[in-house]
């Protein structure tokens, strides 16, 4: 990822009028595709069929784990083009099966009533340690399969207030967290692409909020987690090359699922630019007899 910007990584090839192909870079190939990548590429595919309107909301389901070794086909359904709103549905396909689907709504620019919740107090990004530094400190002698993940330069710069807890047996914490984040490489002037990359980043750390009270992490033996669905509302345009505060909370966990809410504020003026909701799988797998 350090030789290719995220804008280039997420780029799509048009195969037909409503058909696009995306890939996963070799350095990002794991057992499954990162969910934020499929969200971002699906939104980008929808944007390829929309003119003069900006996305205000998206709702999506993760259906099957994505295979990072083969391309993803994105099929766009032009559900509706109305006077003010445009609706698109996108299906992501691999091996002849749906792995993900997304519904998104786009609107012409419009003025109206405005209010927002205030951005909560938080240490400035300069006062918070970079997650990459914390990750290396917590894993001084990682197993071979984790070395690439620990040393990789991530396309999104992240700084978790209070530090990450990537250990096998972390201390239980409250189901709230604050994360500073921004795109590491320049995005450019296209406001649509800033939305796309913000959507990419929105899947990062959110599910971990529901995990915090339970003394587990992704490194805990037998622990299984995965995003199940994801929703996002874009309130105002923003420049995601600047710092944003991702305020997260988990009101509930039950039935092997954790529910999470996220609010994304611009650091420069405290403006709420987007909100998220996500439910994810979180369970301990029983050891094999």
UniProtKB/TrEMBL annotation:
Entry annotated with the keyword Hydrolase: yes
Domain called Acyl-CoA thioesterase-like N-terminal HotDog: residue spans: 29-107
Gene Ontology CC annotations of this record: cytosol
Keyword Lipid metabolism: yes
Enzyme Commission (EC) number: 3.1.2.20
Domain Acyl-CoA thioesterase 2 C-terminal: 176-281
Complex and partners: Homotetramer.
Protein name: Acyl-CoA thioesterase 2
Species the sequence originates in: Phenylobacterium zucineum (strain HLK1)
């Amino acid at each position: 990822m350090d030789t290719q910007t995220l804008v280039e990584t997420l780029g799509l090839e048009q195969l037909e009028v409503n058909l696009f192909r995306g890939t996963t870079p070799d350095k990002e190939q794991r057992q499954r595709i990162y969910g934020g990548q499929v969200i971002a590429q699906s939104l980008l595919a929808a944007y390829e069929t929309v003119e003069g309107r900006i996305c205000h909301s998206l709702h999506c389901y993760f259906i099957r784990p994505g295979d990072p070794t083969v391309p993803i086909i994105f099929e766009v359904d032009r559900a509706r083009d109305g006077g003010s709103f445009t609706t698109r549905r996108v299906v992501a396909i691999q091996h002849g099966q749906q792995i993900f689907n997304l519904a998104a709504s786009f609107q012409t620019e419009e003025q109206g009533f405005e209010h927002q919740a205030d951005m909560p107090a938080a240490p400035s990004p300069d006062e918070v340690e970079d997650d990459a530094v914390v990750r290396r400190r917590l894993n001084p002698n990682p197993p071979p399969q984790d070395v690439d993940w620990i040393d990789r330069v991530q396309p999104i710069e992240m700084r978790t207030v209070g530090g990450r807890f990537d250990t096998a047996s972390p201390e239980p914490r409250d189901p709230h967290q604050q994360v500073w984040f921004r795109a590491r490489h320049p995005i450019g002037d296209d406001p649509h692409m800033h939305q796309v990359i913000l959507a990419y980043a929105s899947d990062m750390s959110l599910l971990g909020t529901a995990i915090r009270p339970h003394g587990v992490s992704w490194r805990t033996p037998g622990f299984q987690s995965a995003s199940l669905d994801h929703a996002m509302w874009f309130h105002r345009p923003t420049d995601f090359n600047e710092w944003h505060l991702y305020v997260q909370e988990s009101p509930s966990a039950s039935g092997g699922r954790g529910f999470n809410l996220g609010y994304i504020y611009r650091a420069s003026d405290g403006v709420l630019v987007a909100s998220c909701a996500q439910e994810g799988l979180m369970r301990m797998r029983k050891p094999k007899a």
